[in-house]
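Write out a record, focusing on structure:
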Amino acid sequence: MKGMRWIGYVAGRYVSRGRKNSPSAVLSVLGIATGVLALTVIIAVMNGFQLGFIENILEISSCHVRLEGVSPAQYPGLNEKISALPGVHSVLPFRELNVLLRGKQANPRGALIRGVPPDALDLDPGLAGKLQIESGLFDLEEPRNIVICAELARYLSVREGDYVNLLSITGGLFTDSDDGSQVYSVSGIFRTGFYEYDLGWGFVNLESSAELFRIPEEYDDASDEFAEAAPELSDAEGPYQTPPVLGIKLKNRWQDRQVTAEIRKVLADSGLSEEGFTLSSWREYNRAFFGALRTEKLMMFILVGLIFIVVGLNIFQAQRRTVLERREEIGLLRAIGASDIAVRLVFVWDGFIIGLSGAGFGLALGLIISFNIQTFFTLLEGLVNFFISGINTLSFYFGGHAGTEEFAVFSPQIFYIKEIPSRVIPHEAVLIFLFGLLSALFAAWFASGKVSGTRPAEVLRYE
């Protein structure tokens, strides 16, 4: 046989007609579809949670690149030069300090306060996109304004317009005459959706943070050298203010190494040596956390992906039975001129059709659920609660106690989430599809190995 188009035709007939009383092809397709569906939805939900955490960390508490040890007063125009680099999205100077906040409640609570410019949300659109202002405004124009997180405001029993007492731990440690305590007015309350930030974060004016984060001369061994290097940073009373950190956000966080090299070149052109500053990327100061998330995702991928091994073994056994049961047909094909590899490709094409059908159907259904995950869980909860309601009704009718509570997949009383996040990453969806397809393809290839052992003369003699 010179042409090879017959291979697809014969394989299609095998799949469509199958064997009597054996729905193996249908079960194989459903098995692969179930595996692809499950893995697609699980990875999409995991991506939603993990990317939400990562973006909250990088956009709120951290950044893509941090530049420390450089004062804008010493090098005017540095922020503008860095902002003009092609890969840079925004540059925001800030200071961070740990404080104790006390509101109407007698017990104070520790918090991390970040000093930022009044126009911080304009300078950093990424930060603005993550902060949901629940009350008031992000107003830091007044030196004694503070914007605090929602859970912290609830703990301190304060609302917009109330006052909080801020005790700078740095100030309390470095001076005896001033305990660092100051009164701030709550100008706004925000929420991020990340519990750690919603319970212990706040923003103040950058200049106010400079006053809180001061180091008196008598407590700094290097104060004389610091004053000579940067006299413009000292005030009339003698305390020296640490320069703010420059938080640099990138258009693509995976280009951090390239942009870091460009920033180093800008700093070198400005006369800064490598010892005069610290430049680090998000890969370095969040390495442990991001590594743990990556390992968690990989292990979930492997564990759920085991279903493809089970399905592949089922296809392998089904194809082996097919080869044995179709020995006569194989012998006939060999007798009229088909080669071993051509006959073997019939069964491989059979597996390809099964894998393509199952993986395609599973991926399509998985993407539909992933993009409508909230609706899916609402329907699931409604179905479960319908059965719970029926059980409660029957229990009450027969004299029992109908005390079963309603079911919720992610109860707000337990989980700090308002909705279930879902993110589909295209290359991961393609990889899952290929897993389903290749599991069937390899199973069919190995199962069809017995074709080469079929001898047409012996098969036809006994028929």
